[in-house]
Amino acid sequence: MKTNLTKNVFKSVLAGIFISAIVQTVMAQTSLTNENFDGVPLALPSGWTATTNGWKVDSSNVSSGYAGASGLQNLAIKNSFPSGTYAVMTTPVSTMGYSSITVLWGARHTVNFPTPGSSISAFDWSSDGGNTWIPIPYSNNAPNSIWGLVNGGTRIPLPAGASGQTSLMFRWIAIIVTDPNGTYRIDDFNIMGISASGINTVLTPSAHLNGMFEGSILKLNLQNFSSEKVSVNIYSTDGKLISSTKEIAGLLNIELPGINSGLYLVEAISESERRFVKVVK
């Protein structure tokens, strides 16, 4: 029978292994773009294009229930549109100086959307201005009318050819069979990559970053950070993003309602450094 001391040591070793794996995965990730469709009321973001009378920015059924859900506006395709094939394309994004490109977004796939035969038939990427499109495999959300991150919340990796591009684009294609009910919505489309810039990365420097939980509130000390604006990401031990916010360096209280007890990794990123700290709830 193991003693309590042995069990605690074993747990500490496992925690160290988990955190090491997460740091290796997320420490060099940089957000290249995050589109929440809130910039202009009921209008596509600058540079985005869509098939006429198809995808539209909408303010109903706002996003919620997943880390980073921005609410307000989202991108929607509806069964009430005339039957047909509808595409929406992002503005070109540069991935120069970045590798291991990944994407993720929130979606609401209603129960009635697939009923008449409607579907999201493709999610593609292009590096030549949209002349050639390459399908990206991923797992879409079930048609349950609940907001959630696609692909089970795991970031979707792109092939190596998406790295170091000057004009990377993405496209969703919907096939609509007209019906009064049913909608598919997208929000918080995020592109990340690993920077080759050599940004300074440090694990658990207590003088620069430390934190503790008080109930469901994470208290963070970012007073000694080198930059005023800091992005704060919180990960579980399986590498899933729990929360993502942009903050002003200082003493922070981040509310995480419903967060379970356990070990978490907090990542803080400024323009010149990236730091991590382990926090136990």
The sequence of SSEs as H and E is HEEEEEEEEEEEEEEEEEEEE
The helix content, as a percent range, equals: under 10%
Please tally the helical runs, counting DSSP H or I stretches of 4 or more residues: 1
Query: What is the correct CATH architecture of the largest domain?
Result: Sandwich
Describe this structure in words.
This protein is mainly β and 281 residues long. It has two domains: 4-28 and 199-280, Immunoglobulin-like; 31-195, Sandwich (Jelly Rolls). The chain is 8% helix and 43% strand. It is built from one helix and 20 strands. The protein has one helix at residues 4-26, and strands at residues 29-35, 49-50, 56-58, 74-78, 84-89, 98-109, 119-126, 134-135, 147-149, 156-157, 169-176, 183-195, 200-203, 210-214, 217-221, 229-236, 241-248, 251-255, 263-269, 273-280. Strands 1, 3, 4, 6, 9, 10 and 12 form a seven-stranded antiparallel β-sheet that branches. The chain has a five-stranded antiparallel β-sheet with strand order 2-5-11-7-8, with no helix packed on it. It has a five-stranded mixed β-sheet with strand order 13-20-19-16-17, with helices on one face. A hairpin with a 3-residue loop joins strand 19 and strand 20. It is globular. The protein starts with a helix and ends with a strand. The model is unreliable at 1-15, 21-27 and 198-207 (pLDDT under 50).
